[in-house]
Design brief:
Elements (H helix, E strand, L loop, with lengths): L1 E7 L5 H14 L4 E7 L2 E2 L8 H6 L1 H5 L5 E2 L12 E9 L2 E2 L1 H7 L11 E8 L4 H14 L2 E9 L4 H14 L16 H6 L1 H13 L19 H23 L9 H45 L10
Parallel strand pairs: 1-2, 1-5, 5-7, 7-8
Antiparallel strand pairs: 3-4, 5-6
Helix pairs in contact: 1-8, 9-10
The site of flavin mononucleotide has 20 residues, from helix 1, strand 5, strand 7 and helix 6.
Length: 310
Amino acid sequence: VKRVLVVHYSQSGQLTEILDSIAGPLRECDGIEVTSERLQPIPRYPFPWPFYRFLDVFPESVLLEPPALESLGIDGQMRFDLVILGYTVWYLSPSPPVTAFLRSDAAKVLKGVPVVTVVNARDKWLTAQERVKAELARLGARLIDHVAFVHQGNPAQHLATTLRWMWTGRKDPFWGAFPAAGVDPGEIRAASRFGGAIREALVSGEEIAGGPLLTHLGAVKVDEDTVLQERLAHPNFVFWAKLIRSAGEPGSLWRAPLLLLFSLYLGGMILAALPVVVMYKLFLRPFLRRRTERWVRYYEQPSGSSTAAP
Ligand SMILES: Cc1cc2nc3c(=O)[nH]c(=O)nc-3n(C[C@H](O)[C@H](O)[C@H](O)COP(=O)(O)O)c2cc1C
């Protein structure tokens, strides 16, 4: 029997649905045993989020300062043939409960094991994946595949629908101009194709550690604009996170003025992102095109964006 561990943290349950879709074909297979671990931080984060709490988790998320976790059903001594690690993105970083898992004793289960990462974000997961990759390398895990699920609509639409969802809990389409928040349900159903490919590889008995298993299935899609925006934003996030963290612990009143200043900065950055990308395309792209294309190819590794049969 092949043993697969699926570990993740989800607030609304959206990432849980995605992972259930992926794990479906594995659960149906007699020769595969699936263990699921849904992480829970102590105390739990609110959902929907009060505005101030939403801001207050920023410094610790970016600085990878993890919360405590409720006790896990697995321990570092257990052996698995494959681990599927699902995470959402908070402020260009893995959500803190997943950071907590990666820094826990139980994360020793990842040593020497092939890992498939599954990310769910509004649309900005590149920096978070770099940070997860660094943690996996430190743990001696082997990242063989990466699959990304982003929210439906154009960037202005999913910015509005995601914030409305996070702050009010409402996911429905509105004003005839904005689609439902989150990942397209059709894409969630279609995620079972990844589980099908993993099942085939596991039952065929081939050596899967070399990976990738999920090429030609449209596992990720990276666009130049996101690469640019994240590479510009992340160093600023680290600066702000250190500054706010130096003012006190989560919940401390000393952080309030800085957090409010940061929220203005963030709003400004988001509004400025569009003209910056237009300016880039008009003036700088001809000079930087090769580099950005190289970045896109880099972030699409290891599974790639291709949907064409080999
Ligand atoms: C505090 C917070 C910060 C977030 N920051 C980002 C971000 O930087 N980039 C992004 O694409 N999505 C961001 N999101 C959206 C989430 O990644 C995710 O898609 C959404 O929370 C759904 O996940 P769930 O399954 O936990 O409900 C953020 C969400 C929260 C709650």
